Known about the structure:
By secondary structure, the protein is an alpha+beta fold.
Amino acid sequence: MAKEKPAQVATADDAEGESAAPKKSGFLSRKLVIMVAAGLLVAGGGGGGYFFFFKKGHSEEKAAPVVVKAPPAFLDLPDVLVNLQSQNNRSSYLKAKIVLEVEDQKLVEQIKPLMPRVMDAFQTYLREMRQSDLEGSAGLYRLRDELTKRVNLAVAPTKINAVLFKEIVVQ
């Protein structure tokens, strides 16, 4: 008779040994995939950074045309002296030396005949101001913006760039 091989009986040690081997190989493959992905991410980031800083910068420098702009022209206005609104029956005055900034000298010549209209707009607006409206730099910025709007309305279709203050005294 032929000898039969005895059936192998699985022991607890054998079961752990068989299950541990697949887990270890799965762990290694996951670790390998993560390392490869991280390497690709670093290489892609390095390539993108190189392109952004070195390749892109050179093309922009060559493509930018140089535009030479003429300096602006300035128009001095007569001194403005107005009595401000007062709540306590005490007189307070505003004295200002104002300059208009325009694109070029041709616009200055267009604005000069309209100066009575500009001065009227200034006088009527400034007489309604209170001393508290002019306090601090924020008050002066608001005043500059309002005067710029009023001058542009008075000299339309000509346009000024800015109202500049040479001197402002509030007493």
